[in-house]
Amino acid sequence: MEVFECIRRRRTIREYKKDPIPEDVLEKILQAGRWSPSSSNSQPWHFVVVKDPDVKKEIRIAAEKEEQAFYEHRAPDSWLEDLNQFGTDWHKPFLEIAPYLIVVFKKHYDLECSTQRKSYYVNESVGIASGFLLAALHRSGLATLTHTPAPMGFLEKILNRPQNEKAVLLIPVGYPTKTAEVPVITKKPFNEICTIT
């Protein structure tokens, strides 16, 4: 029940303290993603942890550029209406304030000795690893946000990742401020999300 309650209580946080997180704690948490299952044990992911303030600022500037285009030109009105309940816009100060950003990359193939080794069920495997990681972060008392500014190619450039990696998720990580607002949300009834036959 402890695991269930942990998952049930997780919420998205957009306001972080600048307090650092001990790196040994963060490294232990990242092991949860490492031990995640994957197709053929290919482990088609790579986690990049960003703590450098200058790099975080560069990421914020690039992310806000994409987010502004999304809010002003790309998103249909129905999507913007759904976002209104959370009071969000294209400004993303948490990308600089949170002490760490974890960027999740997917790898469609591995580079081994100048050859390419194809990975299978990459999206599914990376999704599971990301879920394990988010649960471990929350269980450790840390706040997170699953941020997906699109397109995300700027992360590959800023973080100088190899050509076989594509960014899929940007996770600010830190301790929530005392004044952080947690959205009041409801979930669909069980019978709407599950059928037992």
Task: Describe this entry's structure for a reader.
The protein has helices at residues 2-9, 23-34, 53-74, 77-84, 94-97, 122-139, 153-158, 190-193, and strands at residues 45-50, 100-107, 109-112, 115-118, 143-144, 165-174. Helix content is 42%, strand content 17%. It has eight helices and six strands, in the order H-H-E-H-H-H-E-E-E-H-E-H-E-H. By secondary structure, the protein is an alpha+beta fold. The chain has a single domain (2-193), classed as NADH Oxidase.
Keywords, separated by commas or semicolons:
197 residues; alpha+beta; NADH Oxidase; two-stranded antiparallel sheet; 6 strands
Radius of gyration, whole Å:
18 Å
Overall 3D form: globular
CATH C-level category: Alpha Beta
Query: Which secondary-structure class do the elements indicate?
Result: alpha+beta
What average pLDDT do the residues reach? 89
CATH overall fold name: NADH Oxidase
Superfamily (CATH H level) name:
NADH Oxidase
Which sequence of strands runs across the widest sheet?
A: 1-2-6-5
Quick one: biggest sheet? Answer: 4 strands, antiparallel
Q: What is the string of helix and strand elements?
A: HHEHHHEEEHEHEH
CATH architect. name: 3-Layer(aba) Sandwich
